[in-house]
Amino acid sequence: MAKKEESTNMVERFAEFKELKHIDKTTMISVLEESFRNVLAKMFGTDENLDVIMNPDKGDVQIFQNLEVVPDGEVQNPYTQISLSDARADSNPDVEIGEEHTREIIFEKFGRRAILNLRQTLQSKILDLQKEAIFAQFKGREGELVNGEVYQTWSKETLLLDSEDNELLLPRPEAIPGDFFRKGENVRAVIKTVENKNNNIRIIVSRTSEDFLRRLFELEVPEIHDGLISIRAVARIPGERAKIAVESYDDHIDPVGACVGVKGSRIHGIVRELRNENIDVIPFTKNTELFIQRALSPAKISSMRLNEEEKRAEVFLRPEEVPLAIGKNALNIKLASKLTGYVIDVYRDNGEDFNDDIYLDEFKDEIDAWIIDALKSIGCVTAKNVLAMDRQSIIDKADLEEDTVDNLLSILKAEFED
Description:
Helix content is 38%, strand content 25%. The chain is an alpha+beta fold and 418 residues long.
């Protein structure tokens, strides 16, 4: 009786795998059938003459073996053949030689070893299915923000578990300098890569990637999430400093102000998440010279030469502005180069004495602000920057009318003639 109870409801015996691994019913039945066939093939040498019928509603399985009927004494393989007398004795009195005789196999009669073998086979297949499901679930989600609970920390990496207990690995190089995690702590990161090497799934997450900064801004700034503001470029030196260029698709929305928030309310949360990483938010522009100027802020550029083919910019500054452009530990110029995609070379302007030069902003009483902005957009910050250019270049690059440029040059020249 005990043996019968142990062997009944074979499908239900393995339902625990379905519950634990979240495999749908159809797939589970298919895996069960395949597992039965693998075990039976090892026992009988083949499963080609076997019919395995799963009955999910009843919670059981039926196995039928189809045997060729041969004359008595000529059975060469008992797993594929049966003698005429045995077939007739087995509830088939009218069968003839050469016909097929079908008999039911009670799997449980093969004992505990067969059942254990079946469990092991099934467990192995379920594990493979689970890995395939995890790989399919996470592949293609690179750059997506995820949350994980710290399960264990080692010297080289930290193991996180998401809400479905999937394992996420945060290697030390992908953690922000200063990150220190305690067991049970919730950690945010982005999926960097999903690897499948030798059927070993590794989901690598990162807190140092530029995508992590992007996702945090999308989370904290509704205008970015809604598509009113776009993040056009990001550059980071994790734990130290970052620059992010943003653009608004609505003239009534200040992209920098929206990202920073009232009194820094939005950006402060991001800075805390990044272990006090300083973040510069600048307005994006398609004007390369102006974009480089903004990226090098707070330094003020005197003039600039661009090499579009080599993606290189030669920037000239007053001597006192050079340290600002380079920044502490050269962070400012490194980030500006990464943000703009240009190699930036900084030079002290050794032309005329800057004490004799005048910033264009000082001419606001005589020159319209929009004209000054147009000149700044082509790298002209001072009067001598403008006068050093030929008339036609100013017209073409700043997109100004001839009369406007002539009046501009007249005003600037008069200042120095005086």
